[in-house]
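Narrative of activities, Objective 1.

The group set out to show that a structural description can be obtained from nothing but a protein's sequence at a throughput compatible with the screening campaign. Below is one input-output pair from the validation batch, recorded exactly as produced.
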Amino acid sequence: MTSPPSIFRLWLAALLCWAPLALADDLATSWQQAWPIIVDAEAPAYRLTLPSEVYATLHTPALADLQVFDSRGRAVPTLLRPSGPAETAEEQRQAVPWFPLPLPARSEARWELVAETDPSGRLRRVESRGVQPGSERGDGAALVDLSGLTAPVTALELEWEASERPVDSRYRLEASDDLERWRPLPARGRLLDIAHEGEQLVRRRLELDAVSPRYLRLRPDDGSPPVELSGVVAVTRPPASLPEPEWRVLAGSPQGDQAFHYRLGQRLPVTLADVESEASYASQWRIYSREHEDAPWQLRAAPWTGYRLADDGEVLRSAPQPLRAPSRDRHWRLVSTSWSAEAPPGLRLGYRPEQLVFLAEGEPPWRLAAGSARESRRPAPVEAVLASLAERHGAGWQPAAARLGEAQPLAGEAALRPPRDWTQWLLWGVLILGAGLVGGLALRLLRS
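Output recorded for this entry:
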């Protein structure tokens, strides 16, 4: 005979085995579709760009029905954020002209700087007059010419000749565009060139906050020994830019005089609009959108002039029109002032795919589930964790890249049907049961 403790242990083991199955069953019955997430390396967080097939599955306008799950069906902290800048190019290094200057003047020291520039602003000659009392020459301070650079400077790498004397110095920087007015710049870094027991530590870099002055002036901090420079290298990084937008062309149907209706079947974050036509035209346009057919139309862009004209074999088109705010509405409307073609024009809607970021919690592999009228993404402090990771790894840190595998169908269209509300049925059942009990009591009283 099985003892009560043994029965309790069997019941507990069965409950633990059933819990993951219940989570997996909930995932399979509450979500329309899922995709396996493929990662190439271990990382604390991952990011992936949403493809169009995910947007086609989503149900809610705010994209709340989008959640990452681990292999046991547990929700993982997930964040949806706008499309980030395109991947920036690698750092570029370029040697720049520099000129030695006297050390900073103290109380009774006097010196002046005489510079000669060419028409483009580049320095041809720098002459310093006057030196610090008690010294015949001042080394360590330098004037750097950045006028030949087009990208912002993110760092300076200083070069000096190797010597037996160790280097341990701090420098401060000033910026100017006319060699007359100077402003201090925050610079991070310490110049080091030290050796001990066959090991050597060298640091030549001064970090900057992406500045674009024409000239820089370097000076040792008070109390820091000067460094006999032999060269200056400017480190630049091309500015980050947004990725090119993707486009969807919708076919329209007439809706009154000079008005056309379109329906967008995906929850795309539309930010641009344009008119598509094979025929030449020139017209003023207005664009509206709304989520439901019975909702009022909302103006999404100020009236603009769109055209498509031929010029000596070349087709000239008007630029796409930016919307006042991103929109995911289902219904769109174009209104023209002078559309003469028989067929409705096409509506081009532009968007930049958003990024989904999730933390590496739970047991991989992870899955992305989308499309549900019953479930929604759970709030999680993902932004705070990302900020902490960026502070630890550096400002340029990003979550590791991930991608989606082949789609896996789950509940399909059934996941888009709202769950039944059993509250009213339950209330009616309680009322009927209560009425039956009261009737039974009354019958017993009559019989007695």
